[in-house]
Amino acid sequence: MTTTPVTAPEYQQSENWLGSPFLHIKRVIVKFLQGLHAQCPPGAYQWCPAQNTSPDHFKASEIWIGSETPLNPDVIGQRPAITVLRGPGMFQGVGLGDQAFHDLRTGAKVLMDMLPVTVTVNVLSRIPAEAEGIAWFAAKHIWALREEIMRGEEGIMFLGSRLNISPPSPAGSLVGPDTEHNWVVCSVSIPCYLQTSVTRMPLNTGVVQSIAVKMTTQDSRTLPPGGEDERQSTEPLEARLIVDKETT
Q: pTM of this prediction?
């Protein structure tokens, strides 16, 4: 019998998934939105990567994009902003015991499950129409390019369908104290299904290497001439099981 080893690629996760999958999905959406606005022409909410290193980062970009909360109005300035957050996530349970693979040779088990979560893109501005316009721009491209977003991200099973866009409303706790202007937020809710797996390997246990069966009779008497062999059904047989194993 041949079995698929637990080192097969379909049971492994990339280095990006060594941490929390919830953190990673936020990074993926933030990077996508930054790249999307980086391609916008000047005057159309262009995002400039130089804002991370330039001392004049207040003017380097026409929009602020990240995942921090609450946002500091002194850092954002007069620009609109996008912050990516997520809702609660829970293990779904895709089967009995969540077992995806069991290696009978080593006793290793691969447990796998789905994690449904809602990722929220919050677009903040001092102008409601501006917040709603940028929110629609983000939602439209996430919906249209969802397959490209998931490409190369094996931990993302589903993303970008059935989006929900809220009307502009007070930003509340998303923005820190601001005594000069009132901020509004327009949120885009994105349903997402993540996949996570873990390999459980038993240690210091015996592992069967081979099994051999040897069968002998207890009576070795010869038959008389012309006699009939009735021992086929009446003579007891002795079976010995030989097992070779090693400890891992």
A: 0.70
Domain ranges of the chain: 9-200, 206-247
How high is the mean pLDDT in each 10-residue block of the chain (248 residues)? 40 54 93 95 89 55 92 85 94 80 80 92 95 97 94 86 94 76 92 88 70 68 58 55 57
Please write down the HEC assignment for all residues of the chain: CCCCCCCCHHHCCCHHHCCCHHHHHHHHHHHHHHHHHHCCCCCCCCCCHHHHCCCCHHHHCCCEEECCCCECHHHHCCCCEEEEEECCCCCCCCCHHHEEEECCCCCCEEEEEEEEEEEEEEEEECCHHHHHHHHHHHHHHHHHCHHHHHCCCCCEEEECCCCEECCCEECHHHECCCCCCCCEEEEEEEEEEEEEEEEECCCCCEEEEEEEEEEEECCCCCCCCCCCCCHHHHCCEEEEEEEEEEEC
CATH class of 9-200: alpha beta
